[in-house]
């Protein structure tokens, strides 16, 4: 394997850059910005600096991300040094740290040193995200993930719920947000059914999307052929395949770079510019299982997508590109107990060559396992374990968790170490390019505010415009209010005054106005959504101003 000298110089330049950054002082490059502006935000979920290093060695040359390394990001949450994906996404999207499982809402617990407490009445209050701000600016918007599009991280940029598992609510809010391009998995959360994440409220969101004139595509060929300015691509019931497995298991699915390219080429036609969010979701999933091949698969796939954005930004001149990891995962390292006393003499090939033998991730390899497990040796070979000893084969045949045993065996051969199957709390690399690029050691919340500033709005002010407690606001207008939970899956806010009844359904962008004396019913549509956090409804100023 040949490793280019160019990589060495780029890596040295990156190290020098990191050594020269100012700690805790995010710096926005003072480059003149011409309208319209675009922002492309990437999140490599659950990766880590060591995983990126390993992936670079595996590739054998520089990553696209290397040339735009500008700093580092602190990832802790409001309650822990180690964050969950939901509050991590909330921080990156809204500029507010939050608690585990909370998506797009303020925390109820703040015990991390240095953070201000939240007023009791503000706990769980929805806070505006960067995508909503871009939309209010008249920009086109896009959302991409290789997981279900309703998963925690894409949800953080498009929805507001008190539990990341509320796929019903997340999916509904995403549909009524009127995002221009949505690409990923999660089709089962769009329609009623009996599967794990099928809709429980009876609403068929595919029908809603058709009414909203989306081009609904389900394969990469359909995606490529679409000429619509509104595309909803749902390529799998749940998550998409790992990139290394796709050709063999799900060849009809697009790659992350293909989805990114299509989204950019669609959104760039908007005269006001665009905001695009892209997540490489399954680095995190692979890290949770200590699947070294899965980690490398998704980091390299993510890097290819980042390259699409960098190439566009270089040509455009008014596009900010940001790529970050939301948190570490697994404690992966090049070096383990095998290398304690010999690390200084172990060549790169000792780490990489065993990994190169694998043709599939652990998920892909296990998908080829027969029910009677008679082909364990063949499955192991797909994962790079092609020369099993009798003892190793016996170990695999008797394993209670075959996948766990296989990933451990390959990691041992490649001298790869892991400390955990969970998240980790280290600072992570920050990649940024274009006007107002971010440099230095920054908080994850700083990323959101920097994007908002570049696009010309303030996230805190936006929250005051988009998410006002409905009970108090309508009471001040002389209405009697109540929250109707007759249908638990479809809460409604009801406000009544004389012969007027205002109904505000959860998660949607509409208000129903009824006046009995004139037998009048009107439905008003907005570019904002209505959110219920379990105790209160929140509506926008635009909704309130409609009700005289």
Strand content: 15-25%
What portion of residues is helical?
A: 25-40%
Which blocks of ≥5 consecutive residues have pLDDT under 50? 1-25
Structural class: alpha/beta
Q: What form results from the Cα inertia axes?
A: globular
Number of strands: 23
Report the span from N to C terminus: 72 Å
Radius of gyration: 24 Å
Largest sheet properties? 11 strands, mixed
Output the strand order for the largest sheet: 1-15-3-14-9-2-8-4-5-7-6
Number of helices: 21
pLDDT average, as an integer?
A: 94
Sequence-ordered SSE layout with sheet pairings:
Elements lengths: L4 H16 L6 E2 L9 E7 L4 H11 L9 E6 L10 H10 L35 H7 L3 E9 L3 H5 L10 H10 L4 E5 L19 H7 L3 E3 L2 H6 L5 E4 L8 H7 L6 H12 L6 E7 L1 H7 L3 H25 L2 E6 L3 E2 L3 E2 L13 H9 L5 H5 L9 H7 L7 H9 L3 H12 L2 E2 L5 E2 L3 E6 L4 E6 H12 L3 H8 L1 E2 H7 L3 E5 L7 E6 L2 E6 L4 E6 L4 E6 L5 E2 L4 E3 L1 H6 L2
Parallel strand pairs: 2-8, 2-9, 3-15, 4-5, 4-8, 5-7, 6-7
Antiparallel strand pairs: 1-15, 3-14, 9-14, 10-13, 11-12, 16-23, 17-18, 18-19, 19-20, 20-21, 22-23
Could you characterize the architecture of this molecule?
The protein is an alpha/beta fold and 548 residues long. Helix 11 (282-288) runs antiparallel to helix 12 and helix 16 (390-398) packs antiparallel against helix 17.
